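Practice problem: predict the structure.
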Amino acid sequence: MGLVLDDSAGVGAAIDGGNAEAALLQRVERAHVDWSQEPVARRILLRFHSSPLEIRGASRATGVALDAFTLETPLVVTSIGRRGRALPGLPFDEARGTVPHSGGRVVDPATGQTQPGMYVAGWIKRGFASGIGANRFDVEETVDALVEDAAAGAASSWA
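Answer:
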């Protein structure tokens, strides 16, 4: 699975002249992404300078309306704010402001069991600290867990 930076909005120039955290993105593959086309490969696409307006779908995500277009997707991962807040249905460590996990898989603290189809990354995973560089490694660990679970057939239980 690859990591690709959508350079359609011209963010490459900003990254090339940016700070130390931006320097980590200099090594990421860049491409002009046509979001209206079906994906050609399994990959994580990073798009900057877009504002989400609405998550579409009734009982589960079907897409995200952005300021420029609608992205159809069955998965939406949000990362907004500095301190995690409890969400219904997810265990939460109030003292740390994080969701208990093991390698990115959400864990029920009462049983120690992972929760099928539930994953965390970034500050909700490890608390408010650091920046893009540290988050990148968190995301890689979590995506590895997700892909491992899907390959093991766990995805059928995520409904």
